[in-house]
Specification:
The protein is mostly helical. The protein is built from five helices and no strands. Helix 2 packs parallel to helix 4.
């Protein structure tokens, strides 16, 4: 199970990175084509959908690797036993919040599919297609958060804390800036 989850986070991050690369390719291509008088208005719609996909697919990977914004001013000052309870409390709230997000994102996407809703921009595709990245990415993020909750419940150090400590031990404080 651990191997499957770790691969899920890696592939999700890679998918997010692929969407970022596609955004760059589309924007550069659009700039070049404009110089030749080619209309590229629908590219803006696709880029906006790819931005959402890049964000939501990158979130699980970023969370597991300690790259999410976390306010640790209080946690760093607590002894390990008390810190564990605070981590459990925070992860529980995060799981509930992301579960709420995932539920409504998937419900919204499913309703767009049922009603055959079309995009309002220049590219009239079924809107559930780009919305699927939001729905699926939110599920992946929920899985990552529940995974961390179970890790802490088992008395282990959260993966994101280990990742940050390893970076700090190597002299990399770039994520703290």
């Amino acid at each position: 199970m651990r191997l499957f989850l770790d691969r899920l986070y890696i592939y999700s991050g890679a998918l997010g990175a692929a969407f970022i690369a596609l955004i760059a390719i589309l924007m550069v291509g659009q700039s070049i084509l404009r110089e030749f008088g080619v209309r590229t208005g629908a590219v803006n719609d696709v880029v906006s959908w790819f931005c959402a996909a890049a964000s939501f697919f990158a979130m699980p990977h970023a969370f597991k690797h300690g790259d999410f914004v976390r306010v640790t001013l209080i946690l760093e000052k607590l002894n390990p036993k008390v810190r564990r309870y605070f981590e459990l409390f925070c992860l529980s709230i995060a799981c509930l919040s992301v579960a709420y997000l995932a539920y409504w994102a998937n419900k919204f996407t499913y309703e767009s599919y049922l009603f055959n809703e079309k995009a309002q921009g220049l590219l009239p595709i079924s809107i559930w297609i780009p919305q699927s990245s939001f729905a699926l990415g939110s599920i992946f993020l929920l899985i990552a958060m529940v995974d961390e909750l179970f890790i802490v419940l088992l008395g282990k150090t959260p993966t994101y804390v280990i990742a940050v400590e390893e970076r700090h031990a190597a002299g990399d404080f770039s994520s703290d800036v």
